[in-house]
Amino acid sequence: MFEEWLDILLRGNYEVSVPSLTVTSDEIGSLRGSGQFSWNADSGIRIQAATDGGDTLTSLMFGGLGTPGRLISHSTYLNFSGRTHDHWEVCADQMPRAGHRIFSNLPDVIWDLQTTGLTLRHESTGQTRRVLNILMGPLPPYWTRGTQTEVHNAFFGSRQSSLDWLLIESRIGRIAARRRSDAWFEVRVLPQNSNPMCDASTICTAIGRAFGFAFGRRCVIRGFEEINENIETRRIDNCYPASTRNSLLQPLGVQIAQMENLERLLGLAVDFFMTELGERAALYFYLSRDTVDNSHMTRLAMSSICVEGLLRLAAETLGPTQPQVDQVDLSAFQAWLSTPPIGFSQQFLNRLGGFAGVFRNLSANEIFRDWVSRGILGVTKADLQAWSDIRNPAAHGNLTLAPNQEKLQSRVFCHHRLQNLQNKIILQLMGYTGVYIDYAQPGFPHATFPHVAPR
């Protein structure tokens, strides 16, 4: 355990023996034994152990694993925990009961199964401090700050400098990120002295989302090390989905002129994704960014869905908040249906009655039209048309391949507008002001955010 934890995570493999191990669940109670936890970045986290409880599991073996299509009962989920030789508490993520063998002539149970994550915790008596180190990927395409390196050697001495790190100011403290390899970078969080350390997993998630938004792709976290007063916690996570360098359109682009805004954007994004509103927004834009490796048709469909969700989310503060339907008209329509009118089949009237519910809910079209009329976020009729051209075929099962180059190019332009609108909504929600890239315009020019509607 003397190695630096992030070096272990970078290496991509780790194993630890657990001479005192316990397996528990509501179904089987508590079983005791010993085992080993091993991790490989390519194959995941493996648990191999031997415990007592053969008789207990033999009585359950004829129950099987349940009927396909039904939820697995939480009472069957297993908790593997134990203590290492050097007094680290080890705990694996919960997993369904599986991966065990029982021998009729032995009282033991042999376990061999995989889990999604592993946590190690240790209490120290030395100097206390507070820091969180995270290993994330993929590597950002550019950095804002430089490091000078000097090599002292009788024959091959050298001096060089390179951009390889950045610094973020956030409400949770100072956050520094630096390149660690061609695929991974380290994030170090130093919390404010006056503030308690937030939950490490929550901080990791917010930082991952902030980098993901800034660079237009999902960031994955391989693990972290948290030192909080006298408690040290180490974590390994299976990285799913795998990291990728493909991306959607980045709000600030990759131009050198934008770098002065990147650190400020990341600080606002970290704070935003620590909030309940940020949690809700992340559900939508991450769905879109999950499609960076999929076909163009998939990216189009998901972008239209995510734009609609973000529109509704932003309308809670930007308006409108009510559907543009006169309640007198709606009451008259419902009274007409209840007559019932002559000359219409009951099936047709039932469908009309179901359709009436649409008038009670705010539609994406209404939000678009309201924003266009008030100049909110610079939304135009072309944005509405782009969303409609993509959303309607996807929603009504009419997706088709582009019949020619002109139609394909039109879809590409529509996709640019949808991604641009996603970026602007999230920039608005997090309170960003400054320069951004306007992907709705030819040439992707620099523009000032927020957009000011002409008077």
What are its keywords?
28% strand; 455 residues; alpha+beta; 11 helices; 15-stranded antiparallel sheet; two-stranded antiparallel ribbon; 33% helix
What is the overall shape? Answer: globular
Radius of gyration: 28 Å
Rounded mean pLDDT is 88
Q: Helical segment tally?
A: 11
Helix content class: 25-40%
Q: Write down how many β-strands occur, each being a DSSP E stretch of 2 or more residues.
A: 17
Number of domains: 3
Could you say which structural class the secondary elements and strand pairing correspond to? alpha+beta
Uncertain segments are none
Give the N-terminus to C-terminus distance in angstroms.
65 Å
Order of helices and strands: HEEEHEEEEEEEEEEHEEHHHHHHHHEE
Strand percentage lies at: 25-35%
Strand order of the largest sheet: 6-7-3-2-1-4-5-8-15-14-9-13-12-11-10
Can you describe this structure?
This protein is globular. Helix 5 runs antiparallel to helix 11, helix 6 crosses helix 10 (381-395) and helix 6 (296-318) runs parallel beside helix 11 (405-430). With 455 residues, the chain is of the alpha+beta class. The longest helix has 26 residues, at 405-430. The chain contains 11 helices and 17 strands. It folds into 3 domains: 5-58 and 74-118; 129-274; 296-449, no CATH class. The strands form 2 sheets. Strands 6-7-3-2-1-4-5-8-15-14-9-13-12-11-10 form a 15-stranded antiparallel sheet. It has a two-stranded antiparallel sheet with strand order 16-17. A hairpin with an 8-residue loop joins strand 16 and strand 17.
